[in-house]
Amino acid sequence: MFLKLVFMLFFLVTLVASKDNSFTYNGFQSSDLDLDGTADVIEDGLLRLTNDNTQVTGHAFYPNPIVFKKTSDGSVSSFSTTFVFAIRSQYPTLSGHGIVFVVSPTNWFPNSLPSQYLGLFDSSNIGNSSNHVFGVELDTVQDFGFDDINNNHVGIDINDLKSYNATPAGYYDDENNGQLKNLTLFSGNPMQVWIEYDSEKTKIDVTLAPINVVKPTRPLLSTTKDLSPIFNNTMYVGFSSTTGLISSYHDVLGWSFKVDGQVQNLIISKLPTLARFSEKKESKILTVGLPLILLSLVFMITLGVMYYIKRKKFSEILEDWEHEYGPHRFKFKDLYFATKGFKEKGLLGVGGFGRVYKGVIPSSKLEVAVKRVSHESKQGMREFVSEIVSIGRLRHRNLVPLLGYCRRKDELLLVYEYMPNGSLDNYLHKQPKVTLNWSQRFRIIKGVASGLFYLHEEWEQVVIHRDIKASNVMLDSEFNARLGDFGLSRLYDHGADPDTTHVAGTVGYLAPEHTRTGKATKFSDVYAFGAFLLEVVCGRRPIDRVGKYESVILVDLVFECWKRGEILEAKDVNLGSDYVSDEVELVLKLGLLCSHSEPLARPSMRQVMQYLERDIPLPDLSLLSLSSFGLTFGYQEQEVVKDKTMSHISVSVTESLLSGGR
Ligand SMILES: *[C@@H]1O[C@H](CO)[C@@H](O)[C@H](O)[C@H]1NC(C)=O
Ligand SMILES: *[C@@H]1O[C@H](CO)[C@@H](O)[C@H](O)[C@H]1NC(C)=O
Ligand SMILES: *[C@@H]1O[C@H](CO)[C@@H](O)[C@H](O)[C@H]1NC(C)=O
C-alpha cells in the first residue's frame, strides 16, 4: 500500500512536472508565481521582490517543480534562463542587498534571514551540502564574512554565499571589440541576465547586459562545475531578494526558463515599465501668508471628510490571516472601477449565488468577470477563502481561471478571467442564434471530461465540482470548453447548520444519493456529468418543461430510444445530418452509464476519458442489468425524499452566474 502510494506520488510528480519544463513571462500580470514575504506583482505586471522597508525578504517561485535530471544517467539536463531586473536604491552610492536567481529543492525557506543571507540561509545551515541550493547572485553589498569581492558583483553560489566564482558586474561589449564595460547593478536601469548550463561540458555561463544591448557573445562569468551532485531530481526555480540597513526596490520585469534547448526570448517591448519613485516636493507653506494657511486648513478638513466617506464606500474586510494570501486579494476599489461601479450595463448574469459583472482591470487591461456573492456566515469564511485561494492555483486548459477575491462586509467578490463566448447553454437551448455542430460538441465534451478528470484525480487534492451543467461550462475565444464555478457551493457547506443539510446543486443533475445524504462525491459529479452529456447531444435540459404541467425526463427518453434499438433518435434535431453516428452513440450510451442510480456502477472520470478516446470499449449496456427503473429511480426517489423530509433537506436550484443571463 505504502509502496503503491509512493509510486503514485512519484508518477504524479513526474507527470505534473514533465509538462512544465519551460515558461516565459513578459511581465507577470496574469502569472501564478508563488510569492511570499514582501514579493508582490504591482501595477503593470512588475514583480517587486522587496519594497522600501529595511530588513525584509521577498521570494517569487514558479509554482511547479521542474524535472532537472535525465532518466538515463541521473545527470542534470542542460537548462537556460533569462530575466530582466532593476535595482533602485534611495541613495546614489549605497544599496541593499541584492537578487539571487535560485534553484532549490523547496520553494520555502522558513528560517532564512534577510540582509547578507539573501533570504536563502541562516547561520546554522549556510555552507551545508545538504542544502542542495544553486544560485546566481546580483549582490550590491560587500560582505567580508562571505569574502565578497566588492559591492557590485555577480556570483555563482552553491549551498553557500561564499561564491564558488564571482566577478564585478559588467559585460563584454561586442560593439567595441569585446571590451569589458562596467555596469552598476543598483543604477536603477533595467538589465538582462542569461544563465546557461551545458550538461555535456558541465559548464555554467552567466551573461549580463543593459536592456538595450543584445546578448554579448562572451559571457561575463564562466565556470566548470558538474551540478549533478547538487541538484535533486525535481527542483523549484525562482528569485530571492532582501534588504538590509538600506532598502532598495528589487524588481523583475520578465523571465523565461527552459530545460533542454534554447530559452524563449523575452519581448522587451512587452515588459512592464518601471514606476517612478514618488519625488518629494518641497513645502512652500512657510513662504505664504496666514490667510492661505487657514484656507488650506479648511481645504484639508474637507479633503479629510471626503476621504472618510470614500473610505467607507470602498471599505473591505481584511483580517490578519489574509495577509498570507497577498497576491490573490484584490482591492475593492480596483474592482469598483474595473466594473464602472457595478453598473447594470456590465451585468453578465444573475443566479442563486449573486450577480456577475464584466470588468476591465485598468492597470493591466485584463478582462475579468467579477462575481458578487452574498454571505452571512462569518464562520467558515476563513476556511472557504483558503479553499478559494488554493483553487485559484488550479491551472488547466479546461477550467475558467480564478484570479483572486476580495471580501467586504456580507459580501465576497470572486474575480475570474472573462470568457468572451459566454456559457454553453446559450448554444443549446431556446432557439440559439448559433448552433454547434457535432465536432464542436464532441470537443467540448472531451474538454469538460478532461477538466473534471483533473479536478478529481490529477491535482494535489481531490476537488469535487458539485455543479456540473451546461450553464457552468464557459466557452473561450476559440470555443474551448472551460468548466467554471467549481467549489462555490462549499461556501454553504462550511457555514451550514449541521441539523439541516443544504444541498447546493441543480435539480436534474443531482444524484439520488447526493439528495439523500447531502454529501457530494466524485460519484455525484459523474452523475451530473452524465446528465450534461445527454444535454449536449440532445439539446434538451435534463428535466425539460413541455407545456404547463408536463416535463420530459431526458434520461428516460434516451433510455426508451436505446431499448427500441434506436438510440440515435434522441439526438438534437439541430445537428442535421452532419454527425458521426459512432461518436453520438458512444456519448449517449456513456450518458446512460453515468446516470446509473447506483454510485459504484458509474464509471470514474479516468474511465470516461478512456471511453471517449476509445482506448477501451464501452461495456455492453444490456449486460449491466440496466432497467428504466434503475435509471429513473434517482429522479423518482428524489421527489419522494423532497416531500417527506422537506424540513431537513432543502434543494436549492442554482444557476450559473457567469452565464449570459437567463
Ligand atoms: C534532495 O536530495 C537529498 C539527497 O538525495 C535528500 O536528502 C533530500 O531530502 C532531497 N530534498 C527534497 C526536498 O526532496
Ligand atoms: C548539515 O545539515 C545536516 C542536516 O540538517 C546536519 O545533520 C549536519 O550536522 C550539518 N552539517 C554541518 C557541518 O553543520
Ligand atoms: C571597472 O570596475 C573595476 C572593478 O570594480 C575597476 O577596477 C575599474 O577601474 C572600473 N573601470 C572603469 C572604467 O570604471
What's a concise summary of this model?
24% of the residues lie in helices and 25% in strands. The strands form 7 sheets. Strands 1, 3, 4, 7, 14, 15, 16 and 18 form an 8-stranded antiparallel sheet that branches.
What would you say this structure looks like, in words?
The chain is an alpha+beta fold and 662 residues long. It folds into four domains: 54-171 and 200-271, Jelly Rolls, CATH 2.60.120.200; 280-308; 314-417, Phosphorylase Kinase, domain 1; 424-653, Transferase(Phosphotransferase), domain 1 (Orthogonal Bundle), CATH 1.10.510. It contains twelve helices and 29 strands. The strands form seven sheets. Strands 1, 3, 4, 7, 14, 15, 16 and 18 form an eight-stranded antiparallel β-sheet that branches. Strands 2, 5, 6, 8, 9, 10, 11 and 17 form an eight-stranded antiparallel β-sheet that branches. Strands 19-20-21-23-22 form a five-stranded antiparallel β-sheet, with helices on both faces. β12 (170-173) and β13 (179-182) form a beta hairpin. α8 runs antiparallel to α10. The chain starts with a helix and ends in a 9-residue tail after the last strand. Mean pLDDT is 81; it is low at 1-18, 277-287, 491-502 and 632-662.
Based on the model shown, name its key terms.
662 residues, alpha+beta, Jelly Rolls, Phosphorylase Kinase, domain 1, 4 domains, eight-stranded antiparallel β-sheet, 12 helices, 24% helix, globular, disordered N terminus, disordered C terminus, binds 2-acetamido-2-deoxy-beta-D-glucopyranose
